[in-house]
Amino acid sequence: MMYSIVIPAAGQGKRMKAGKNKQFIELNQTPLIAYTLQVFEEDEQCKQIILVANEYEIEAMQDIVRAYNIKKVTRIAVGGMERQQSVYEGLKQLEGPDEIVMVHDGARPFIRESIIHELVNATSKDGGAVVGVRMKDTVKRVSQNQIVETIDRSELWAVQTPQAFWRDSLLDGHKRAEDEGFVATDDASIMEWVGSKIVMVEGDYSNLKITTPEDLLMAEAILRKRRMEHDS
Ligand code: CTP
Ligand code: MG
């Protein structure tokens, strides 16, 4: 089954402290966002990519799309102040009949095609699905530096992207969220808020979101391992 994808890349990467949007940080002379784009360029089930960029970085993104020969990028949308606005702007660019749409962070370059396909299948069956991993750490609720409770880990998942829904329902959710001032850090939160059923697809820990400087060390290690797998 085919899908379209919106890739928000319009953030500032403040926690990375690189003095620029982390999407442009190079790993092996290749910008971070190029890795993410390549995954979907190569996936035969992906039919088009809407890339969302900061208004000042449209040209720089265009250059990367050209340099890495990413043919599926049909539009570069201008993002907003928050991730939610950037995703909404991207979704508005999709035309034609209802279809499965995925939202995937530009900052998650290590998503595997097999997991993307599991997500597509789950969405076509259940209407909405997200990728996540089981929590490794014990999690506690803390108030004013004092532990309030320990949360039962067996039910806790750390949510990643991609997150996939039918486009018309996701657009509806975003519209309602904007109208009613509901703000969330991921798309599933919006769809939970409107009451949609969403299933969890178990992914893997290598699909990290490059967020802080130490994530770059992990990213280099993952790249090295994948290159070894590829060469052997
Ligand atoms: N994003 C976006 N538009 C925004 C904010 C974030 O498109 N206004 C994108 C980022 O570019 C990233 C993804 O959403 O690919 C996840 O956000 P996050 O990891 O928080 O990235 P940044 O917002 O760039 O980083 P920070 O929060 O540290 O500033
Ligand atoms: Mg952010």
Query: Reading side by side through the largest sheet, how are the strands ordered?
Result: 5-4-1-6-10-7-11
SS-based structural class?
alpha/beta
Instruction: Report the portion of residues in β strands.
Output: 25-35%
- Total domains, how many? 1
For the record, the CATH class is Alpha Beta
Largest sheet: 7 strands, mixed
Low-pLDDT segments: none
What would you report as the Rg, rounded to the nearest angstrom? Answer: 18 Å
> How would you classify the quaternary structure?
single chain
Average pLDDT rating: 97
- Total helical elements: 7
CATH homologous superfamily classification: Spore Coat Polysaccharide Biosynthesis Protein SpsA, Chain A
Can you offer a commentary on this structure?
With about 230 residues, this protein is of the alpha/beta class. It has a single domain (about 5-225), classed as Spore Coat Polysaccharide Biosynthesis Protein SpsA, Chain A, CATH 3.90.550. Helix content is about 35%, strand content about 25%. The protein is built from 7 helices and 11 strands. It has a 7-stranded mixed β-sheet with strand order 5-4-1-6-10-7-11, sandwiched between helices. The protein has a two-stranded antiparallel ribbon with strand order 2-3. Strand 8 and strand 9 form a beta hairpin. Helix 3 crosses helix 5 (about 165-180). It is globular. The two termini are about 30 Å apart. The model has no long low-confidence stretch (mean pLDDT about 95). The protein binds cytidine-5'-triphosphate and magnesium ion. Cytidine-5'-triphosphate binds near residues 8, 10, 79 and 82.
